[in-house]
Amino acid sequence: MTTETLMIIGSGALARSVCCGLATVGGPGLRLVVVGRDRARTDETAYLARAVAAAAGRPVTVEPWYAPDSGVEQFAEAVAHHRPAGVVVCASLQSPWERNAAPSAWTSLLAEGGFGLSLPLQSALALRAARALRTTGSDAWMVNGCFPDAVNPLLAALGLTPLCGIGNISTIAESLRASFGPDERDSVRVLAHHLHLGTVAEELEAVAFLEDERLSDVTERLAGQRTCARTRLSHVAGAAAGRLLHSLVTGAEIRAHVPGPLGLAGGYPVLVRHGAVRLDLPAGVSQEQAAQWNALWAVHDGVSVDGEQVRFPEQAASALGSRLANHAEGFPVTAIDEVIGEFGDLREKLRRDAAPSGGSAAMAGVTGRHS
After folding, report:
1. Could you give the CA distance from residue 222 to residue 215 in angstroms, rounded to a whole number?
2. What are the Low complexity biased-composition ranges (predicted)?
3. Domain 4-165: CATH architecture, name and number where available
4. Is residue 205 a contact partner of residue 218, using CB atoms and an 8 Å limit?
5. Residue 274 has pLDDT above 60, yes or no
6. Percentage of residues of the chain with pLDDT beyond 90
7. Residue 234: which of 25, 46, 15, 53 has the closest Cα?
8. β partners of residue 31
């Protein structure tokens, strides 16, 4: 029996959900390696996945691996040791829950300018993982779960293109599919962005089709998702990711929805077959049109990647203002390492300041937008 190893980087809510999602569908020979910084949390994530696999009657094995520094060298060591078929990044330097757990001037900045301002910190560990794969010469594919709508195009511009992402449109699409009966769900195709996890203006709403007919009631069908506590949406993302990753490992054919496929910005319907991913757009929708929708949504989420340039749109640039004037309008992708450090320093400075008066209320209004 051939053993296929998947390396899951992270030990937080998304990593736990992905591991448990895989544990319910994995077949003989699937081995999960959970790579984390914190020993206790990494052990806990591995335990939960093992227990879920046992409860589901699935022959999946799970083991922890510790990478305290989460650096390229430690990731490369893990890749060289375990020789994974794929690496799944489920950790970043920016928690999506910070705005609720520890509001500050930093979280108010993200609320004002858009979640896209966190792109540098969201990209850091995915960038390290991609570099580790390149350093070791591994032919493993990489799937990124950290703001893949924008991080994946950034990585692609650096020659480190991930296969696709998980989360965001995956959650949105499953929410829409769940609003139909079982016989209709497989006919639903969605184009959506991270932005659509929360409520948006009518003209910015996600685009969805049943068969090839565009739906006019997307907002109504997403009401349940948008009133659900964001911490609980990881269950949906994890289940969708488990099915996707199982297909990639086994070569089985499925239709799915993923963010950042092949380095594209935003989210798309895809066909996964023999470990490859290709777009599966509704009839009458070109890739150019789909990309234009996602480009518009990206601007309203606070960041876009245009060729080799990261651009912050007006509301993000205004919010960043004099705090980081040299990057207020963006930066070249080749400067990402320097920018990660500068945004990290800015965050630490702003974290020491309380959220401005009314900041909590302002953030509550965009809670659904952050992932």
Report:
1. 12
2. 355-365
3. 3-Layer(aba) Sandwich (3.40)
4. yes
5. yes
6. 91
7. 15
8. 5, 61
pLDDT in tens, 197-222: 999 999 999 999 999 999 999 999 99
Handedness of CA 341, 343, 344, 346 (dihedral sign): positive
Q: Could you state, in order of their start, the residue ranges of all structural domains in the chain?
A: 4-165
Tokens matching residue 172? 């949105």
Name the token pair of 326: 């040299």
Convert 88-112 to b/e letters by CB count within 10 Å (16 or more is b): bbbbbbbbbebbbeebbbbbbbbbb
* Per-residue pLDDT, 370: 32
Whole-number Å distance between alpha carbons of 12 and 244: 20
pLDDT of residue 361 exceeding 70: no
DSSP string, 219-282: HHHTHHHHHS-GGGGHHHHHHHHHHHHHHHHH---EEEEEESGGG-SSEEEEEEETTEEEE-PP
- Model confidence pLDDT, tens digit, residues 143-191: 999 999 999 999 999 999 999 999 999 999 999 999 999 999 999 999 9
Q: Please give the radius of gyration of the chain, using alpha carbons only, rounded to the nearest integer.
A: 19
- Residue 269 CA to residue 42 CA, distance in Å, equals 32
